[in-house]
Amino acid sequence: MVKIPTFTSEGNPQKTSGVISQIPNISDAATLPYRTLSKQADSIANLGLKFQQQNKNFESQLYKLNKEQEVQEYKIDEKYKTDVINTNNKLENDFKILQLRLDRKTLLKSTINNILPQLNEIKLTASTNSNTLKAKEEYDTSFKQIIENAKLNIDDKVVKQMFEMEVGDLYATESQQVDSYIRKNSITNAKIVLNTDKEKLFHDYINNPSDRPIILQKLFSLNPNAPGIFMEAAMDGILKVPPQLAVQAAQVELFTIEAEKLVDENPKEFLNLLEQGYWKGKILTTNIPKLKDAAIDKARAMDVDFLTTHMPVDPNMDIEDAEVLYKQAISGDFGGDKNKQSIYKNLDDEGKADFITAINQQRSHVRAEISFQQNQEQRKEIDANNELYTDTYGKIVSGELTVSDIDALGFEGKLGVEYKSALKNLIAKREEGTLVSDAGLKLYDQAFKMIMNGDITSVTDKVIPTNDGPKSIMDITGGEDGIGFSQSKELYSLIINRNNEDVMFQKNAFQDFLNSYKEQILGNPLYQKFNTQSESRFFDFSLIMKQAYEQGLKEGKSPYSLLNSSSDDFILKNIAEFIPSDEQLTDELLQSMGVNVPDDENLPPQRKPDQTPEEWMNSDEYKTWENNQ
């Protein structure tokens, strides 16, 4: 059966029994939706207000929480900052402390280092100060002054205290070394004094025989109450050995000196004392045989020397007189001198053989001295003639003198006669027109070398080989094949200075210099044989170089610097100026053969290496030359 639907209120309203239901109010019903809606609106509004209030409360709570968080964070942040600042401050303080320590340490070390050279210097001064009494006092004063000066540069009190402590340690070490040095110096000085006293007493002993007992007491006494120098040195603590050993060594030294002196000056007395036993216990027995042999040899040599005096070296003696003395000595007669005859007879075979050798040597010496004296006299004559010759030669060249003037000149001896003859020949050459200026290089070089070798000692020595036989410098002066006046004068200067090593070195060095450039200046050797101008050109070069060389020597420059091409003072600045070209040599050769050589102006211009003949003839230079012909 179909059930009829019914509406059931969800609110389950309950009816109250006994209450009369009113009639529904239509207007109320009509406004109910609106009122319901109004209530809902009020509810929504209330909810909105409540939500708004809740939201404000929430924001307030949130704000409060945020503030609390900020405060908490601020507190945390402030604590961090405080910790950081404290840490930084601590680090900064630690750094400053370390920096201060470092600065102080650096200042201390630099101050110490700065004074170390000064301290070393005063230590060295003290260690070498011969005045040992004042050395330490002066060292301490200087040390203190250096320290006080250094402290003036230290403002930091801590550093100054540290410096004083360091210096105290340094002084202790350095002072100990200085004391050691001074002590050593004191000992050294004392030993020097000891040796000086010993040497003086030794000298007095040898040279003052009458004072020997007193001298021996001063030297060798071992009595502490009257000590000798060695005992006194032992008491002062400067001997390394006992005084007895020092005295024994000194005695051997002294008596050995005495023995050697007698052997050298009076060997026969030494041998006499040896026979008497004087040297026993005074000198080493191992030395006696050697001294005895030396004394015998010395005595023999002294006898030989004495006998040789029979023939004295007297340069003023005649050779004949010297020979007479020689024969008397060699025979053993000695002109009747009994003392010499006795000494000669007492010579052993070795002594007589030594005498024969000695008297023969003496004979040679006497002859040499006499010859030298005679040569000296001849040399004076030669020099006088040479000076007169040089002056006369110049006047002959200038035409001032004639043959009769030569005869009136005061030439001396045989050499003077030769000079007059040579000068007259020069006058003849002058009149014939054959007195050349200068050129003969070969002859000049030859004479130069002979002078340097000692083969020529005078301008009249006829030793220069020529086609006409040996000739002198005077003979080869002038003439077609001779040397000129300047060359002759230079050779003469070389002769008179042959004993002056400096002058000879200067001239020889210059001659070597000229010869080293000779071939270059003379030019191509193919042209030299028939070229009469090459030697004149070289002579001109020689004169220019000689002038520069002599000027340099006057200015105090050395031959090495003037003749060395690597030197700034080298006299040959540009050799190219003196070396002839092949064209010049050709012209000279043609002229020497008598062929006229056209002037350079009449010659066509030279063709360049890269020009063909046609290009050359079409060049402006060639056309200009062609138009001028």
Describe what you observe in this structure.
With 629 residues, the protein is mainly alpha-helical. The protein folds into five domains: 48-183, no CATH class; 192-356, no CATH class; 376-432, no CATH class; 441-586, no CATH class; 598-629, no CATH class. 71% of the residues lie in helices and 0% in strands. It is built from 23 helices and no strands. The longest helix is centred in the first third of the chain and has 102 residues, at 26-127. The relative contact order is 0.02.
Observed structural traits:
mainly alpha, disordered N terminus, 23 helices, single chain, 5 domains, about 0% strand, about 625 residues
Architecture blueprint of SSEs:
Layout: H1 26-127, H2 132-151, H3 157-207, H4 212-220, H5 229-235, H6 243-265, H7 267-276, H8 288-308, H9 319-331, H10 338-346, H11 349-397, H12 403-407, H13 413-432, H14 441-452, H15 473-476, H16 485-496, H17 501-522, H18 525-528, H19 534-554, H20 559-563, H21 582-592, H22 613-617, H23 620-628
Helix pairs in contact: 1-2, 1-3, 2-3, 3-4, 5-6, 6-7, 6-8, 7-8, 8-11, 9-11, 11-13, 11-16, 14-16, 17-19
